[in-house]
Each structure stands twice: as structure tokens, then as C-alpha cells.
Amino acid sequence: MRQGRRVVLSVLVSALVAVTQPTQPAQAAPDEDTVKQIVDGYMKPFLAKRNIPGAIVGVSIKGHEYFFPYGKATDSGDPFRPDTLVEIGSCTKTFTTTLFALAVNRNQMKASVPAQQYMPGGFKLQPGAQRMTPLELADFTSGLPDDPTDLPSGPLWKRNIEHYTTTNFLTWVSSWTPETPLPAPYKYSNAGIGLLGYLVSQATGQLWEQQINAEITTPLSMSDTLLRPSPGQMKRMAEGHTKSGQKAPPWPIYAWYAAGGLRSTAQDMLHFGEANLGHTEVDGHPVSAELIAAMKLAQTPIYTMPNGKNQQAMAWVNNEGSGAPGIHTVIVKNGGTAGFSSVIVLNPFKDLTLFIVTNRNGDNPTDIGIKVARHLP
Known about the structure:
The protein is of the alpha+beta class. The protein is 32% helix and 14% strand. It has a single domain, classed as DD-peptidase/beta-lactamase superfamily (Beta-lactamase), CATH 3.40.710.10.
């Protein structure tokens, strides 16, 4: 693991990231019927076996976009549409690590210095946490637990930022001590990415929400991707469900919102995926080389994950597949909330990105997304 980290750290220090277009052979995008047949072949059995209320799949191949709705988005029968809002959960983490990569490339942050350097004023890490770095937060080797350990009990709304505040969160972080020397072994952490969001804001002098809007969603025409949808946007919100099929409560805005707070749409997530593939134009608007470079940096593998196969990047995971000839790496991030399950997949070789969301907790469409992204022409 340390050798892989040294390779990436050298890239981070130099801030030189090669921005290349996908290397797949040039050819026309497939027709919609071909795409639909493949998507249906995976999605219909998946939805039927799990009795999932509804879902939508968005696919972009060489910039050509396709949308395939299934079931219903609301209990009253409204269908899923490309502009139906959903909770994307931990897919939010890739937005935060993109902001971090931008700050690194702009020399506003250093990846391997103590995180204390960027802590908000008045908050000091414990001696055992002094070696923790922003990169360790981004790649899940900080040792921080998944969520804060002092959360109030009871319904989810009691844990929202109005009840468990930013001050509560940063106070907890400041009281925490790692269990092992850093970098720690891989441990997925909402709290870690949530803290990274505060560090980036402190280093850049801009609030996380402002940066998401200015650096990502506005340039990429992602007007429906945000932390707090307007009343008008909420009219297009799908209804989430618990594992048992009951109507799920809305996902709260937690104090660590940079790890999982965004709402979005299938249309917007394809725009995000296309930019992550290196497209220099999305929805008719130019994408800056600076943003593409940051996205590529966030996708760069850092170390081998505990399964001995996949490569962890900054929130993203590089899935190597079986290693058989013709099986190309896909880059993945999934998400889940109390009422939704989602995944975004990048297949650079095919210039393909895919987003799947179901309106039920615990469905985890990651494997289906990877299979579809590898099977599509």
C-alpha cells in the first residue's frame, strides 16, 4: 500500500496530471434499441427478484445519452424521468474529492501535510491524529469511523445539522484518536470525507456548497444537483422506500454533508460522468482543462483494496475485473440513503458513463452497473 501511495503522492506534489481523451477505437454510438435490450436484460430480472418499486438508468456512450425508466417514482404512480430528483448518497463523495483535487492542483492545499493545517479555527486534533493528512481522508486510510460515534439516538431527523451541528461534529473529530498508526488500513468513512469538505473550505475560503455550484454544477449544466432543492424542484422528487417497502424519511442534511448530502437527477449525473471521462464539452458548454485534470486526479489509483483486486482512489474505486483479455478497468462509486440506492460507473475505454438509481434502500446496483457498462458496445 505504501508504495502505491508514494506514486500518487509524487503526482500530487507535482500537480501534473495527464488529461487524455478515452482510448477506445473511434466508432458510432449504438442505436437506442441495442442499448435498451442490454440494459433491460440486466435490470428487469434485478428489479423483479428484489421487488423494487422503481428505477432509472442513464447511459452516455460517446456523448450520446439514453434513459430507461422502470416502475414508478412515487407511490401515486408518477414515472421516473431524466429530471426526476433522487438522493445520490455517497456518490456525493466524488464531488468533494474533485474539489480537493482542484485545491491541490491550484496549490491551495497539500495532500500529505497534517490536516490540522486546514482545520477551522478553534479545533485542534489529538496528538495521535496529528499525522492524519487530507489524502488519508480522501482515500479512507485516516482511521476515522464511518459516522461520528456521539450521534443522538432516535429518528434520523434528530441527527440533522440543526440538532447535531457543525460545532458538534468538529468537536467530536477533535476528541478522536486513531486506533492504529497512520495511514491506517482501509476503512470506509463518511466522517472522513465530511471532514475533508471542511478542510477544503478552510483552505480555499469558500463554502462547500458555493464551490460545488461554481466549480462543478454550473459549468456542467447540472442545475438539479444541490444540497437543498427548491420547493419547485421538490415537486419532481422521487419517493424513497425502506428495505421493507415502507415510505422512507427524507435523507437529512448531516453536519458531514460533503460525504452524502446531494440530490441530483439521471440527466445531471450523466453530465458529471461525461466530464469525468474527459469530455471537453458537456451539454453544449466547454469543460475546462483544469476541471478535467482534477477529476482525473481524483480517479487515480492509490493502493490495492483489501480484496486484493480493486484499486482505491479518492473516493472512486477502480474495478479491474477478472483481468481476462478484453476486460477493461471501470471506475465506480455507489451511494445509499434511507430510501435510495445508486451507482455511477465510468468506462473510459468505451467512452461510456452510466448512472443507476432505485427508490429503495439496500438494493446496491453496483454489480449490475459494472456488468452493463462492460457489456454495452
